[in-house]
Design a protein that fits this description.
With about 290 residues, this protein is α/β, with parallel strands linked by helices. It contains six helices and 16 strands.
Length: about 290
């Protein structure tokens, strides 16, 4: 794609509009802004900002989508971020073949550092995460980019709940739907899954919460993004945006022991990092 970067960047969209990012020739593009008449707004182009130095491109602000009501308010849009090689890619191929995990949701997306062979996926570029002192990764910047892609795709606005899971999380969308039944998806809330915090193994956000992310993440949630893990970053971001917390003790069993998968009351089990251990946990959870 031809780079058409806008400078200076407007700080925010006007009230009631959300900056959806960059489009080029009708496709999302990380390195450009929107050509006039090619924005990703579902209701048609609505642009604001300074004219760019090339191609007459402009930053794009779109009307905030109407949040789902009725049956759509109970539906799930699920996504995962996976490496395109190694155990994560093997797990995603296995899930796709068996229609497990995110592939059992009403809509789903797979984001990756390159296209995953055998799985419909979206390349968002190299991850670039660094090892962190607590044994995980400084990966918030990568997931901030992933969330920006999810927001730009716009599928989230058709469903009541957006669920991000890790490839090595065994989980059951039908069980989650049962727990969410009756909760107002248009109200901004997220679910804490581990004794007062939200671990990144499974993150559950209402459409109202994602709407707030879409409107303000770019401006309000970038400080310190390079020095934290993704789950701490997204929880702090949601808190900063005034999103309500809900507790769900049955959401996650955090253990890599197959014996921990025996409870059918739980929704998710983490972590099972290869196809064999994942299958063993899945079988134990469905006996």
């Amino acid at each position: 794609a031809v780079a058409t970067c806008c400078r200076p960047q407007p700080q925010a969209c006007p009230a009631g509009l959300v900056m959806v990012g960059c489009m080029e020739h009708g496709q999302p593009d990380e390195d450009c802004c929107a050509f006039k008449g090619q924005s990703s707004c579902a209701s048609g182009p609505s642009t604001v900002g300074d004219i760019c130095h090339t191609s007459g491109a402009v930053y794009t602000c779109c009307p905030m989508p109407a949040l789902p009501k009725g049956d759509d308010a109970a539906s799930l849009y699920c996504w995962a971020l996976s490496q395109h090689l190694g155990n994560e890619a093997d797990l995603m191929r296995d899930h796709f073949k068996k229609k497990h995990g995110i592939f059992a949701c009403q809509d789903w997306s797979v984001l990756s550092d390159d296209l995953i062979d055998g799985v419909p996926s979206i390349n968002i570029g190299a991850f670039g995460s660094r090892p962190a002192w607590w044994g995980s990764w400084y990966n918030a910047a990568t997931f901030a980019r992933a969330w920006a892609s999810i927001i730009r795709l716009g599928v989230w606005s058709k469903h009541g709940w957006t669920v991000k899971t890790d490839p090595d999380t065994v989980w059951f969308p039908d069980r989650l739907s049962s727990h969410l039944k009756g909760l107002p998806a248009d109200e901004a809330c997220y679910v804490r899954n581990a004794g007062g915090i939200m671990l990144g193994s499974i993150e559950v956000l209402s459409a109202g919460a994602v709407s707030k992310l879409a409107a303000r993440m770019r401006d309000d949630c970038q400080v310190g993004v390079d020095i934290v893990g993704e789950d701490g970053w997204i929880a702090k971001c949601l808190d900063r945006l005034g999103v309500e917390k809900r507790e769900e003790p049955a959401l996650l069993v955090y253990s890599s022991e197959v014996g921990s998968c025996g409870s059918r009351h739980a929704i998710a089990y983490h972590a099972f990092k290869d196809v064999a251990s994942y299958a063993a946990c899945y079988d134990a959870a469905t006996r």
